[in-house]
Amino acid sequence: MAELPGQIRRMGGGISQLLEQICGFSRRCLFQVISMGPIPNHLAFIMDGNRRYAKKCGLEDGSGHKAGFSALMLMLQYCYELGIKYVTIYAFSIDNFRRQPEEVQSLMDLMLEKINSLLEKESIVHQYGIRVYFIGNLALLNDQVRVAAEKVMKATAKNSRVVLLICIAYNSTDEIVQAVKKSCINKSDNIKASGNYKHEDADSDVERKDMENQEERIQLVDIEENMQMSVAPNPDILIRSSGEARLSNFLLWQTGNSQLCSPAALWPEIGLRHLVWAILNFQRSHSYLEKRKKQL
Amino acid sequence: MDLNQSMLLLSSWIGQIGGFGLDLLWRFIHLVVSLWYIVSGIIEAVESYAISLGLNKKYSSINIAKLRCLAVVVDIEEARDVTKVIELLQWLRTIGVKQVGLFDSQGLLKKSKDLILGTIPGSMLSEEIAEKDFSPDQNRLALEFISSSDNKEAVMKAANILLQRYLTSSHPENDKGENFFTETHLNEALRVVGENVHAPDLLLVYGPIRSHLGFPAWRLRYTEIVHMGSLKYMRYGSLLKAIHKFTGVHQNYGT
Fold first, then answer.
1. Number of structural domains, chain B?
2. Which Pfam families is this protein grouped with (chain A) (predicted)?
């Protein structure tokens, strides 16, 4: 009689394992079917709605972000199973530093914990051979988080199967400014090194002015090369959860040819059906997107 | 034919049948998706018609003051039909929108600027209104024509302005450019090259997909982006609904 609760627990565990295996098998069959059409190469996520989720479920502050992390791991698994090579996530915006200091600190602590967990043997990084990039103004992060991020980037530098880009202390306008800054400083160094710069009027209209030496001007390709996101192709799909219709300063430069999706679900509620829906819509629009790429 | 060859042939047939089966299933899923869009399109059309007739009281008054600047992005194929663009602008004028930016990636609408300004009474270029410092006029519609050259190319031109300033200034060898390259500096340089840096509150996309189609990135930070479908089949009720929904949005700007 004393063994009965244990037996029931083992049976329950066995049934849930079986259900998990059936779900996994069904999912892989579904992915086989979807893969008959074009699969996006790069998917980006804005993980919005963690705080609203915590409020909705009556959880304590910070628990929404933990639930959001679990949802993220699931989505990454689905993306990599489907063969999507690049996934970008908007983990923390520069604007988020303006939140309450306790919330910012709790987010930093959570990020430090999760970044360190990426280095563990059984983490998703090792399971899928993920190369991890941290994109953003890392100088704005505290030393612990920045050092952990740099460690993960170094440790995964040799992985090449799939890529995860984590945007942290990031926003698009800052990325553009940093790219312009790097381009200008590099160009300035080159000009000084070649020693043939002619003093020009600083505020002259550069369109009309006859610049004798094209090498003294920044070209668009210089700025593009210095964008932090240049390590990946432009996203094919950008998904923002919680139904909001704006990009909130995320990948503005890179999404001119991207399909934007806004499922109503809060981020911790996001699931396979939202991903599948976004991909089916991408497949419907694929020929139009390819035509646009050729025109650009 | 020996056993190995038979097995290879059999597995090849099974593979082909399997592939055919998967392809059929894929097409079936897309058929279901297409049917879903047809049904939701019909529902949307009926709702839009009801809104146009004033049957839905919710849309009878809109707090248009909240919409200071609206941008309309038009797919290049759709932008060739200037009459539909003019009709859309007339609807926006009726609703009370005061400032509209029109974008298409190849600048087709820029080329039709004179026709559009000549057809819509009270419309003027935004930059002319700013230069002549006109007082706010209830009937005036400020128009701005934007294309891809106002996006990345404009940032490149602004970068060259900043480069010139950096080269002509005296700064230490190990200067990291903190006093020359900030968002404020780039914003100002974009103004110098003739760009409007104001962010539209709402972006309406008329085209096959929901995408900003290369609208100037610098101006899109917190802009609400709404997909309106094809310009050819645009509906007044859908326009009213999109603007009404925007006026109810609350943003926390990341905080």
1. 2
2. Prenyltransf
A265 in B contact zone (CB under 8 Å): no
* CB atoms A217 and B251 under 8 Å: no
Contact B181 A176 (CB under 8 A): no
pTM value > 0.95: no
- Same domain assignment for residues B109 and B46: no
Tens digits of residue pLDDT in B186-233:
999 999 999 999 999 999 999 999 999 999 999 999 999 999 999 999
CATH number, domain with residue B182:
3.40.1180.10
Domain range for residue B233? 65-247
Whether A257 contacts chain B with CB within 8 A: yes
Quick check: is B161 in a domain?
yes
Residues B49 and B143 in one domain: no
CATH homologous superfamily of domain A37-171+237-294? Decaprenyl diphosphate synthase-like (3.40.1180.10)
Domain's final residue, options B60, B78, B98: B60
* Cβ contact, residue pair A219, B156, below 8 Å: yes
pLDDT of residue A293: 85
Residue B106 resides in a domain: yes
How far away is chain B from the Cα of A171, in angstroms, using its nearest Cα?
9
pLDDT at B90: 95
Distance from CA of A245 to the nearest CA of B (A): 5
Taking contacts as CB-CB distances below 8 angstroms, the residues of chain A near B254 are: 93-96, 98-99, 248-249
Written in H, E and C, the secondary structure of chain B is CCHHHHHHHHHHHHHHHHHHHHHHHHHHHHHHHHHHHHHHHHHHHHHHHHHHCCCCHHHCCCCHHHCCCEEEEECHHHHCCHHHHHHHHHHHHHHCCCEEEEECCCCHHHHCHHHHHHHCCCEEEHHHHHHHCCCCCCCCEEEEEECHHHCHHHHHHHHHHHHHHHHHCCCCCCCCCCCCCCHHHHHHHHHHCCCCCCCCCEEEEECCCCCCCCCCHHHCCCCEEEEEECCCCCCHHHHHHHHHHHHCCCCCCCC
The whole-chain average pLDDT of chain B stands at 90
Answer whether residue B56 is part of any domain: yes
pLDDT in tens, B35-44: 999 999 999 9
Q: What is the ipTM of this complex?
A: 0.91
**Does B194 map to a domain?**
yes
Give the residue ranges of chain A where pLDDT is below 70.
1-3, 122, 196-214, 296
The verdict on a CB contact (< 8 Å) between A197 and B167 is yes
The predicted structure's pLDDT at residue B1: 56
Which residues from chain B sit within 8 angstroms of residue A247, using beta carbons? Answer: 212, 220-221, 223, 225
